[in-house]
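ugh ok so i messed up the first submission bc i forgot one of the chains. this is the corrected input, ALL of the components this time, i swear. 432 residues overall. if the numbers dont match what u have on ur side tell me asap before i send this to the collaborators (the ones from the other lab, u know who)
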Amino acid sequence: MYLTSRKYIEPDHKVAELVLENPSFLLVLEHFGVDEVFKDKTVEELCRLSDISVPVFTAICNLYNGFNFTAQNSLKRSDIPVVIRFLSNSHRYYVNEKYPEILNFIRNLSAEGNKKEIELIEVFFNEYFIEVREHLEYEEEVVFPYFNSLADTQRPVPGKEFSASYYLDHHSDIESKLADLKNLLLNHLHIKNLNSAKRKLLFALFELEYDLTAHSVIEEQILIPLGISAETEKQ
Amino acid sequence: MIKERINIGIIESSDILYEGLLNILLRKQAGLKFYRLGDLDEFSRFNPLISLNVVLMNTLQVHNRMKLFRSFRKHKPGIKWIGVLHSLSDSDTISEFDDILRIDDRADDICRKVCSLASPENPGKSRNAEHSGLSERETEVLRALSEGLSNKEIADRLNISIHTVISHRKSLTQKTGIKSQSGLTIFAISNNIIRLD
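and heres the new structure output, hopefully the right one now
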């Protein structure tokens, strides 16, 4: 989304500098539930104050900066709850903030343009939002509690009906309809004289898509592998 | 065109050679996006959110690192690899690549090789040709889809096999960039292929 110098983030980097280089970290920090004044704090200090494991933090931040995971092996079963916290806060951001914001932009477009096509876009988006909500609710109610129980060393190994690999096999992507929407707006719909309203809508779609893509990578490349190795440890 | 952008990785440590290759490709073909990588290690740390279509690599980079290279090829089968040959290289190394560019290749040949590997289903087809719109059959399939018909129902109505319906749907998606049935319906309405009553 933002131009970055693609810095590979290490624990001794200053948080404020990282944010200045890549403003989208503000959202990452929000997803982690960080609420601190940065001052001179390093990544490590910020993590200690906010109760976040440093390897999880740097792995996720580096993903947002465009690097694949290298810290993956050093993540532990006890890191699962922080990852879940991050994903769960992201869900709240999608449902309470981003999707309503996009819907608003679509309505602005429709109010100004008053075209049938834009009304159809609103219907399309509403249907899509229902699907997304179902997807997220399932993760909140079934998937996340399961993974949290894996992190807990006291609890016995959960039943067979659900497992990390079952989740991986059934993990559907929720980004493809967003791509459809972008394509319709950019390439096909005859929307004239509404550049500013259209641009705001498209920017919001790009932002959401970027975050959703990172979100799925975190689920599939951090959470699920951690879950699978926790399952084997418990057995 | 709506088709996804072609992402090209270039693994080359020499600035002169990198810039030269980049300029040749940029001049000839629009819609390519380039990512420079210093070596194979950097490739392994490359942004997982970007899927590369083709990687051009100095063949010297694989010397002593064949095992690593083969594992990349195995785990990312979608990527085509082109070796850039600057000096003599043994034929075993050369055979590991999908194609080879030589230092004395002409600019046109270089572009042709890269582009035909980047989109194997449309070799040599220009972006404009893809823009020409939908065929009559595709339009009929789109109309039926917009009415909410299933693949089976469309096959029955048009007297074609389900397999053919699916292949028309694929090319609809390729041409419009839209996957979902409801998205395609909006496309159909906005292009007057169906009407809202």
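quick check: Chain B has ten helices and five strands. that seems consistent at least. The radius of gyration of chain B is 21 Å.
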